[in-house]
């Protein structure tokens, strides 16, 4: 039930971003949004531990439900439709009622609700299967989420078993990831739109989705450094060192996600939600699957080499993908019927 209720929320925001902001303005909005999905798994364990300690486990769910209800109520009050064709269709219906003219039309093909829902389900699958941009972004995004959730799953053992901290104190180490998220968002707020604007000016005032690639390139390098730092410092250095590594990892993940999400939005403006939905499927599977093999990975290879494997994957994908998209991105978009420009 939870999956059906909340699976659409994360990707719907990409479409809203495309609808409401110009390309040179989207970076700040997407940076702020990206922080939410990252901070949730960080703040949740900290808050849940204290709620369970001073109350009962049921209040962990009660408090979550109350918070969700409050946010939902605020959304009903302040959120408005942003999809241009839908707004135009509603305006046509209103004018038809007011004037009695039933011949008004919007140029959009009329479809039944069933047909619309079927197309909405089919399009993400088609885009994942036919769009190399979506497929590549989906794979790397899945790796990022899988790596992050692998860290979440192994965090408790590191602080309680390796460093001998209590569960309460050990849970506070999640703050390193939270701080990294804030640092990453701050850097993106200061950098992403400024870099896009500078590259656009150098390109004769014409923007390109590929101008989002610097965020992905920088984020991949920072993530790789953070993974090596994190893995090889566990049990070999003071407990603050793995925290610094985790902080660098979260900074890198934020920058990577920012670059990829903005690239998807700029490439598939009208179909941004469908493209992000295609990415979300693989991303969610990785977030589920990576923590399952984490114990076996670290048991066989240790924290150093186990995390190094993840860093090597980051090099293989994250360091190469920005170059590929920068060079061949325009050709791939030209071959696509979904891409814009």
From TrEMBL:
Q: How does it sit in the membrane?
A: Multi-pass membrane protein
Specify the superkingdom: Eukaryota
List locations, semicolon-separated: Membrane
This protein's GO cellular component annotations are:
membrane
Q: Where would you say this protein principally sits, based on its record? A: membrane
Q: Where is the Major facilitator superfamily (MFS) profile domain?
A: 1-333
Q: Name the keywords, alphabetized.
A: Membrane, Transmembrane, Transmembrane helix
The GO terms describing molecular function are:
transmembrane transporter activity
Coiled coil residues, start to end: none
Transmembrane region(s): 30-53, 59-79, 133-152, 172-192, 213-232, 244-264, 271-293, 305-328
Quote the protein name from its UniProt record.
Major facilitator superfamily (MFS) profile domain-containing protein
